[in-house]
């Protein structure tokens, strides 16, 4: 679907019924939600997955990659599809993107918001914010991306799960392959956005119901980030995934789908 001249996004649109919109995390495509598409469609929902520009099968322009660009792209897609009262969810960086969408576009088309291991409202440490990695850690990742991105992706693979066995070898390869589909330029620019974007001032603008699903063993986005954010958003709740790291949507797939469905149906 075209979101601006010469920029098309890959959009998965399956099923009928009440709408759920899913935004992938860095550096994945919407294919990461394959095991959610099947379950949600079987339960009678319409599911729309949007792969952000620069990733998967979406267009890969050289230009700006930041949370505002992504929020505006989502708005174009939901405008064109004439979506109403959707549940909007995002994983990892996608959590920051969907939060920014709700803030920037006043929750247009959306009646509920969900974060899955969400890097929100801020991913890196500040003098007044002790959660997450230090900015220098992200700078190191950017340097590694520019030198050999395969090494970075292989390293991330080792910390994505709660343990060495919580994600099967086949799924790990699938994640790696999705990562390699992404534009190296987009992946780098998104790390800069992830490092620098601070959405704390916008949390008070979130008035729709919010769900946090987060692994307690998350080594990428620490569980404390979700705990802290949840306290700042009214009408929100946090569900702990005791046996999951960052990829809770496959590590505890049944619980993930059950909790998401429960939230959608409330």
Automatic annotation (TrEMBL):
Domain AB hydrolase-1 residues, every copy: 19-252
Matching entries from Pfam families are given as: Abhydrolase_1
Q: Which GO terms describe its cellular component?
A: membrane
Keywords, comma-separated and alphabetical: Hydrolase
Q: Which GO terms describe its molecular function?
A: hydrolase activity
Q: What is this protein called?
A: Alpha/beta hydrolase
């Amino acid at each position: 679907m075209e979101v601006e001249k010469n920029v098309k996004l890959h959009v998965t649109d399956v099923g009928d019924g009440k709408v759920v919109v899913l935004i992938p995390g860095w550096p994945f495509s919407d294919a990461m939600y394959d095991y959610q598409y099947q379950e949600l469609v079987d339960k009678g929902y319409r599911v729309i997955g949007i792969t952000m520009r620069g990733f998967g099968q979406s267009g890969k322009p050289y230009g700006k990659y930041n949370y505002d660009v992504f929020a505006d792209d989502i708005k174009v897609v939901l405008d064109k599809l004439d979506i109403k009262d959707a549940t909007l969810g995002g994983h990892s960086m996608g959590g920051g993107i969907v939060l920014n969408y709700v803030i920037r576009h006043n929750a247009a088309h959306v009646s509920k918001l969900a974060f899955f291991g969400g890097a929100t409202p801020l991913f890196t440490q500040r003098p007044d914010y002790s959660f997450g990695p230090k900015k220098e850690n992200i700078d190191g990742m950017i340097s590694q991306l520019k030198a050999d991105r395969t090494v970075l992706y292989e390293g991330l693979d080792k910390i994505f799960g709660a343990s060495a066995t919580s994600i099967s070898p086949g799924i790990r390869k699938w994640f790696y392959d999705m990562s390699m589909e992404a534009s190296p330029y987009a992946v780098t620019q998104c790390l800069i956005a992830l490092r620098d974007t601070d959405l704390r001032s916008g949390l008070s603008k979130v008035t729709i119901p919010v769900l946090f699903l987060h692994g307690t063993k998350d080594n990428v986005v620490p569980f404390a980030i979700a705990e802290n954010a949840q306290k700042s958003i009214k009408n929100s709740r946090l569900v702990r995934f005791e046996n999951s790291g960052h990829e809770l949507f496959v590590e505890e797939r049944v619980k993930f789908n059950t909790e998401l469905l429960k939230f959608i149906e409330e």
